[in-house]
Specification:
Layout (H helix, E strand, L loop, with lengths): L24 E8 L13 H17 L8 E8 L2 H6 L1 H12 L5 E6 L10 E9 L2
Parallel strand pairs: 2-3
Antiparallel strand pairs: 1-4, 2-4
Helix pairs in contact: 1-3
Length: about 130
C-alpha cells in the first residue's frame, strides 16, 4: 500500500501529506493542549504549549501501544495564525524531536479562542495501529 496519496501532477505539499491510506485499529484522541499531568498549563508560550500537547498525545497514544508513526491525521487549532506561521522553524524542531520524520495528514485552523482561556494551541489526532 502506498504511504502517501498525492497525484503526481500536484506540487509537493508544504509540511503535510495530502492523503494517508491505512488498515488497522483506529484510535481517536480528543484535542490535547499544553497541560501537565495535573491539568495545569505548562506556560503561556505557544512553543512550550505545543511541545507539551505533543507529549500528551504521545503519552495517551502509548496507552493503546501506539507510536508516532501510527498517527494518520492531526488537526491543529491555533488562536493566532501569525504566531503559528512565525514559529514554523522552531515548530519544525519541536515536531521532529517528538514525532521524528513522520508526517501524517495535517490541518491547521485559526480559531477565535479555545475552551482553556490561556491555551494557544490544541491538537487532535487520529491514529491507526496495526491489527
Amino acid at each position: 500500500m502506498k504511504s502517501l496519496l498525492q497525484p503526481v501532477s500536484w506540487a509537493r505539499s508544504k509540511g503535510y501529506s495530502d492523503g494517508i491510506p491505512s488498515k488497522g485499529h483506529v484510535v481517536f484522541l480528543s484535542g490535547m493542549i499544553g497541560t501537565d499531568a495535573n491539568g495545569k498549563l505548562v506556560s503561556k508560550d505557544f512553543l512550550a504549549q505545543t511541545r507539551q500537547a505533543l507529549k500528551n498525545i504521545l503519552e495517551v497514544l502509548s496507552e493503546a501501544n501506539g507510536r508516532p508513526e501510527h498517527i494518520v491525521r492531526m488537526n491543529w487549532y491555533v488562536v493566532d495564525k501569525k504566531e503559528y506561521v512565525s514559529a514554523y522553524k522552531e515548530l519544525d524542531v519541536i515536531y521532529r524531536q517528538m514525532m521524528g520524520q513522520h508526517y501524517p495528514a495535517m490541518t491547521a485552523v485559526q480559531v477565535v479562542s479555545l475552551i482553556e482561556d490561556s491555551a494557544r494551541v490544541e491538537i487532535e489526532v487520529t491514529a491507526v495501529l496495526p491489527e
